[in-house]
Design brief:
T-fold; alpha+beta; eight-stranded antiparallel beta sheet; 8 helices; about 290 residues; three-stranded antiparallel beta sheet
Length: about 290
């Protein structure tokens, strides 16, 4: 595919959209509007978002249509990781210094996330908040937004594309899209490549958002502490939302358990340098 037809910054990351023809201004406007609408609901870094309101006030909230699939995925990932993956880690991240003010300084000891059933109840698109909680859907939300942007392209008649949001990407088209897997800690080296074909690829690494000694964004909800056992993961799946969520889950769960629950392939690098990956991975790893 050619160079990106559009590149821009949104939700704290760089977006690139590759298409098989010109990207008209109407389509690009729809894409930007979809991203802005998602951010207005789910961002924990702005005071006027729905997430910010939930963090301040108990009550009953009407959720947007995308909330159901997103929160259903989180519920399944929580079961597969024995509670390590949760959208309730927002205050845990703030406690570690990763808050709206980007202080990047811990504000005391680590804080475990609350248990969903203790503080929230969801019935379809209605969320009952019994006590204020700070949601953070970063483990799967950016992937979902990539899928939603891709849906906007299809609605505008574009059938071949790559949507890339800071390395979380989805591909549709006749020609595979070749993606290098960056070696953790060294952006000049790759540990392998994936041939992406009508699928999504998402990755996560502890060096992508890191600050201080051992502090990063991949947090175990059960303890409020950053994980130390795994340094990087990549997942290929049908949707970017699923690939994104599983890329986080592979930091905490046995890969066999996740493969039994979801159709996907993965690469996982342990802190000791060991690499584990699916035999069906559509690509290769370098020795």
């Amino acid at each position: 595919m050619r160079r990106p037809e559009a590149s821009f910054d949104a939700i704290g990351t760089r977006w690139s959209i590759h298409v098989d023809g010109p990207l008209d201004v109407v389509t690009l406007a729809r894409v930007r509007s979809r991203i802005a609408a998602y951010d207005a609901v789910w961002s924990r870094f702005r005071e006027d978002s729905l997430v910010a309101q939930i963090s301040r006030e108990p009550g009953t909230y009407r959720l947007p249509a995308e909330a159901g699939p997103l929160l259903d995925l989180y519920a399944t990932l929580a079961r597969c990781t024995d509670g390590a993956v949760s959208p309730l880690v927002g205050r845990s991240l703030v406690r570690l210094g990763y808050g709206a003010d980007y202080a990047l300084r811990p504000a005391g000891d680590a804080q475990a996330a609350p248990v969903w059933d203790d503080v929230l109840e969801r019935d379809g698109d209605t969320l009952v908040v019994r006590e204020p909680v700070l949601l953070d859907v970063g483990a799967a939300g950016k992937g979902q937004l990539v899928d939603l942007v891709a849906a906007e392209l299809r609605d505008c008649g574009i059938e071949q594309y790559v949507v890339d949001a800071g390395g979380d990407l989805v591909h549709r088209g006749e020609e595979p899209f070749r993606v290098a897997l960056q070696e953790p800690g060294d952006p000049t080296r790759a540990i392998g490549v994936v041939e992406l074909e009508a699928a999504a690829l998402c990755g996560s690494a502890v060096d992508r958002r890191a600050w201080g000694d051992g502090l990063h964004h991949v947090v175990d909800a059960r303890t409020g502490l950053p994980t130390r056992d795994v340094t990087a993961t990549w997942v290929v799946a049908e949707s970017a939302m699923l690939a994104d969520g599983l890329a986080t889950a592979h930091f905490f769960a046995d890969p066999d358990r996740l493969e039994a629950a979801f159709d996907h392939t993965y690469v996982r690098i342990a802190a000791d340098g060991g690499v584990r990956y699916s035999l069906g991975l559509p690509g290769e790893l370098f020795s």
